[in-house]
Design brief:
single chain; eight-stranded mixed β-sheet; Rossmann fold; about 20% strand; four-stranded antiparallel β-sheet; alpha/beta
Length: about 400
């Protein structure tokens, strides 16, 4: 499997895919004449790039627009605004016929491994269909290619005549991966490919995707809810909320020294594999409900639930700016390391580390600050992002060995 920790600089090379100011709004029509009454702001002003051989993880709550970005890049839906550039050529304005020449390079692995497969087609025909669509290959050549793909994804050649219902969930997802690989693509959009699988099968599929990336030089846009899964496979991670990218950074930075309050909230919600610490942790509990994408808040869309929000947040939309090399944050008041409300939890989640392996960094909350004032404590918080990142990365590597996948 490729090493996400050492390949985080892959995005600095020539990008295969460039997305600039991408937006997708779905009109809501009503009345006698079907006029547009409002719009669902599924994706708003999103920009990023993916280099060859890189995996960009896309995480966030349900309904934040992750899957819509993937579908828009694949041109399964048309963008409302913005540009999509594939290998130097814009594809956001192409019609179906003109887009066909790019379909071979852009493939997808979908969330539901059964609903995405035609139940009336045999497994061999499902995998062979892209080859027939994009190449002129004889029947024997197709049969050999399909058998080779079956073997490569961990299926047997004698399973080729079976129908999808005759496979287990993990086998169906492997079948979906084989179909995506069949036309020899350069980018695969993985839309929550392991969320419907149990943990042991998840590990097998993640390891398989990593092996295929190393073997074929594939690029992935990996959409997921599970932060642990994203950490395992991604080189960089983009955190989304209500159609916007809140933070974009190399994987290790996101998990050891994030700067956006929402990123901290997500990491705070991840269970820690230590019962004592899990019981005593100081979680960040967001107030209120997720706003409606039909009527998103003014200014920063996260301000209605943010513990850092100030008046400026209601007036100005924070741009996604680079605060450190490769680390972009959309926040007027990014969290400083000495103010991290869940610093120890961030370390533990990032490393899956035992208590002894986690650096002794104090959690700074309002209650602990008051308690320190009463007790005359001096505090032990770190004072620089670089120091936190160095120590966090060391703890992460020492605890789990980032170069090796779990499972």
């Amino acid at each position: 499997m490729t090493d996400p920790a050492t390949d985080a600089n892959a995005a600095t090379s020539r990008a295969l895919l460039e997305v600039a100011h991408l937006s997708k709004h779905y009109p809501l029509r009503g009345g006698i004449f079907g006029r547009t009454r409002a719009s669902v702001h599924a994706v708003d002003d999103v920009s990023f790039a993916i280099a060859q051989g890189e995996t960009l993880g896309l995480v966030g709550e349900s309904g934040c627009g992750k899957s819509t970005i993937g579908r828009t890049i694949l041109r399964l839906v048309a963008p409302t605004a913005g540009t999509i550039t594939w290998q130097g050529a814009r594809i956001d304005e192409l019609d179906a016929q003109a887009m066909r020449s790019h379909r071979r390079d852009l493939q997808a692995v979908f969330q539901d491994p059964y609903a995405s497969l035609n139940p009336r087609m045999r497994a061999a025909d499902i995998v062979a269909e892209p080859i027939r669509n994009f190449e002129s290959v004889g029947a024997s050549g197709i049969r050999d290619r399909v058998a080779s793909l079956f073997e490569r994804v961990g299926l047997r050649a004698d399973q080729m005549p079976r129908y999808p219902y005759e496979f287990s969930g993990g086998q169906r997802q492997r079948l979906g991966i084989a179909r995506a690989l069949a036309p020899r693509p350069k980018l695969i959009v993985c839309d929550e490919p392991v969320s419907a699988l149990d943990v042991s099968v998840q590990a097998q599929v993640i390891n398989l995707l990593g092996d295929l990336q190393r073997e074929f030089g594939l690029s992935y846009l990996f959409v997921a809810h599970d932060l642990a899964v994203v950490r395992q496979i991604s080189h960089r991670v983009a955190v989304m909320y209500l159609g916007h990218i809140m933070e974009l950074a190399p994987r290790k930075v996101i998990y050891t020294a994030p700067l956006h309050p929402y990123t901290h909230s997500l990491l705070s919600a991840v269970p820690i594999p230590d019962p004592a610490r899990q019981r005593n942790r100081n979680r960040i509990l967001l107030q209120g409900d997720l706003p409606s994408p039909i009527d998103p808040p003014s200014g920063c869309v996260f301000r209605t639930r943010c513990f850092q929000a100030q008046e400026k947040c209601a007036v100005e939309v924070p741009p996604l700016v680079e605060l450190a090399p490769g680390h972009q944050v959309a926040c007027h008041f990014p969290i400083q390391v000495e103010d991290l409300p869940a610093r120890v939890e961030v370390q533990a989640v990032a490393a899956d580390a035992p208590v002894e392996a986690t650096p002794d960094v104090e959690i700074v909350t309002q209650e602990s600050a008051e308690r320190k004032a009463e007790e005359g404590a001096t505090g032990k918080g770190r004072g620089a992002q670089e120091e936190a990142l160095d120590e966090g990365g060391a703890a992460e590597e020492a605890a789990v060995g980032l170069n090796k996948p779990k499972g």
